[in-house]
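Troubleshooting: if your tokenizer reports a length mismatch, compare your output against this known-good record of 227 residues.
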Amino acid sequence: MIKQKATGELIVISGPSGAGKGTVISKLLEDNKDLWLSISATSRKPRGKEKDGVEYYFLSEEDFVKKIDENYFLEYAKYQDNYYGTPKSTIVDKLKEGIDVILEIEIQGAAKIKELVPEAIFIFILPPTEKELLKRLIGRNTEDSNKIIKRFERAYKEINEVTKYNYVVVNDEIDDAVEKVKSIIKAEKCRVDRIEDITLANQEEIIHEAIINKKFIDKTIYDNIKK
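Known-good structure output:
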């Protein structure tokens, strides 16, 4: 019998603005109750209908810097003139409970996580084309043209970071992209280096082990196996 590690897996999902990673993650959470999404903190202002404690923990820049000094974050980075960070304590608790944790973070933050937790699963979400990416950014209707252009330019640079991830998923059809991410997580859990122990679970395995090790099965063992 294969015994999996008791701790949960840390799953890092990144991608440029407009790639649709948030939508992919939302559908993942709907389909799998064993996944938990870590909510990041940010010093930026809420956009649209965003709520504190739902999309982000919204902090003032002063409070954010204070929490940095208190070692509150697993990682943090400054992106588009605002701070973003991942609270540490709850993530550690969830992983210990055997719950898989998703981190939706920027590329800078993902690089720091890779240094701290190299065995984490790193997935990069891409839009199908640059044209579609720009269309999605414009379609948000949350920023003026100057900010959209700035985001598009940054997204173009971020795409070049894809080689630092374990997997890349192109988000053309949302359901297809979600299924690919699910398959990645399932496959990762089957990796040999994620197995904690292998024990003999049935009679066939006991016999096989004895033969491989060239052990003689005496009459007592044989009789017990036959029962």
